[in-house]
Amino acid sequence: MGRIIAIDLGTKRTGLAVTDVLKITANPLETIETSNLASYLSTYFSKEEVDTIVLGYPKSLDGTPNEMTPRVISLKDRLGKLFPEKKLVLVDERYTSKMAMQSMIAMGSKKKDRKEKAGNLDKISAAIILQTYLEKL
């Protein structure tokens, strides 16, 4: 039984989150440079069993595609070729960045720390995307 990994794709940084082995909880994993994503995933998959890749699917507030939507579709196609044995799923990611920021505030992060630790925001957003997926299982 493999884990599920979630990806919150960004132009520069990408947030990652992963489930526990029982697929119960979503945990922030890492924030990496987007250009290193495929390499990072290959290494991670060689060490950890992963069944499913969940991609945050960006949309505008009205539900229409936004400027990141084509990049996510392109990434999905690329990952499908690189890792054909993995299930690929798109999950609506509207409001996840806002929810991640609210989580950081609730955890007591100061405004200065939130600005300096933008990478935390990315992996928390990925965890929210993953939790959304888990709730639908």
Automatic annotation (TrEMBL):
The subcellular localization recorded is: Cytoplasm
Enzyme Commission (EC) number: 3.1.-.-
Q: Which residues form the signal peptide?
A: none
Q: Which UniProt keywords apply?
A: Cytoplasm, Hydrolase, Nuclease, Ribosome biogenesis
Q: What range(s) does the YqgF/RNase H-like domain occupy?
A: 2-100
Q: Pfam families recorded for this chain?
A: RuvX
GO terms of molecular function? hydrolase activity
Name the family. Answer: Belongs to the YqgF HJR family.
Task performed by this protein: Could be a nuclease involved in processing of the 5'-end of pre-16S rRNA.
Q: Which HAMAP family match?
A: Nuclease_YqgF (MF_00651)
Q: By what name is this protein known? A: Putative pre-16S rRNA nuclease
Recorded source organism is Belliella filtrata
What gene name does this entry carry? ruvX
